[in-house]
Amino acid sequence: MTHRETRGDVAQDPLTALLKPIFMGSDFYHVAKQCGDWLLSHEHAVAPSFHLVTEGQCRLAWHDGGEEHLQAGDLAFFPGDAPHQLTPQGVSTDTPTQVVPLRSSRPGVGLICGHFRFVHDVPPAWFGALPRIVRIPRQARGQTFQHAVEAFAEELSNGDAPGHAPVTNALANALLILMLRHCLETRLLDQRHLMAFLDTPVSRALKLLHEDPRCDWTLHELARAVGLSRSSFSERFHRVVGMTVVRYQGRLRMILADQALANGESIVGAMLASGYRSESTFRKAYKRIRGVPPSRLKTHATE
């Protein structure tokens, strides 16, 4: 294959070119049927995640107000930080809670929940162009997409089958690609926007930032590393990514800080995990970017 042909393939499929170097896999944190009166809280959903409703219906309430209604067959994709709670619909509050296998004949809400892993636990910047939830009902999925969803649900219902883990991981990875393909087909994502992220100097700068988000890159150092003047690089980065280098690096660091706090680290531990050397600087940066002090997430993590 010639170099020109390779470039042509990239132009036709930017999704593969952008995901392949950074996507690492999937994990599942809930595979069961919820019966009775129940509540599932997703306080620290800092990684891109998903819910698949296999049976019944439930209410999704956002922490900042508003709600969504999910029903059997719905696939919900959360590209970024999206704290929310799930509760049943049409169930008396005095009905005992019970968690049973997905295959159980008991009436309830079947849920498969998981998240996607990326290098350094940092999702790609272009996920920020998507809404906080992408809801894909059964009727909106094409044949290939629907077959993949059905195979995924069937395999996860069969938890003791030989080779279960690699099969479910491969199917979940396919779901991510199919969900993003759906976003392109429905214009939630613009192909031209993805192509912009393949801009060589910007993609090299993003690679450097993602390789070590804790590193104190200056605008001048990044510009020199990608072979551009400071002003040209600054303009080009902002045009492609939609924010300044400083803001983008700050957001990367806050993802690391959120993960540290959610895992029980102290404020100082989160400061070190995200590359800051001063606690006061870290607290100010966290409040500026997240809108709340880091102690707020720390409190939720310990409840």
**Helix and strand run:** HHEEEEEEEEEEHHHHHHHHHH
CATH architectural grouping of the largest domain = Sandwich
Which range best describes the helical content: under 10%, 10-25%, 25-40%, 40-55%, 55-70% or over 70%? 40-55%
Alpha-carbon Rg, integer? 21 Å
* Number of separate structural domains: 2
Please mark out the parts with pLDDT under 50 across 5 or more consecutive residues, or reply none: 1-11
Largest sheet properties? 6 strands, antiparallel
Describe the global form: globular
Mean pLDDT: 86
How many individual β-strands? 10
The proportion of strand residues reads 15-25%
C-alpha end-to-end distance: 56 Å
CATH class of the largest domain: Mainly Beta
Domain HTH araC/xylS-type: 203-300
Organism: Chromohalobacter marismortui
GO molecular function, one term: sequence-specific DNA binding
InterPro entries: AraC_lig, AraC_XylS_family_regulators, Homeodomain-like_sf, HTH_AraC, RmlC-like_jellyroll, RmlC_Cupin_sf
Summed up:
With 303 residues, this protein is of the alpha+beta class. The protein has helices at residues 3-12, 14-19, 143-157, 164-185, 191-196, 200-211, 219-225, 230-241, 245-262, 267-273, 279-290, 294-302, and strands spanning 23-35, 40-42, 49-55, 57-62, 67-71, 75-78, 84-88, 98-100, 109-118, 134-136.
Outline the structure in words:
This protein has 303 residues and is of the alpha+beta class. It folds into two domains: 18-185, Jelly Rolls (Sandwich), CATH 2.60.120; 199-302, Orthogonal Bundle (Arc Repressor Mutant, subunit A), CATH 1.10.10.60. 45% of the residues lie in helices and 19% in strands. It has helices at 3-12, 14-19, 143-157, 164-185, 191-196, 200-211, 219-225, 230-241, 245-262, 267-273, 279-290, 294-302, and strands at residues 23-35, 40-42, 49-55, 57-62, 67-71, 75-78, 84-88, 98-100, 109-118, 134-136. A six-stranded antiparallel β-sheet has the order 8-1-9-3-6-10, covered by helices on one side. A hairpin with a 4-residue loop joins strand 4 and strand 5. The longest helix is centred in the middle third of the chain and has 22 residues, at 164-185. The N and C termini lie far apart (56 Å). 27% of the residues are buried. This is AraC family transcriptional regulator. Residues 203-300 form the HTH araC/xylS-type domain.
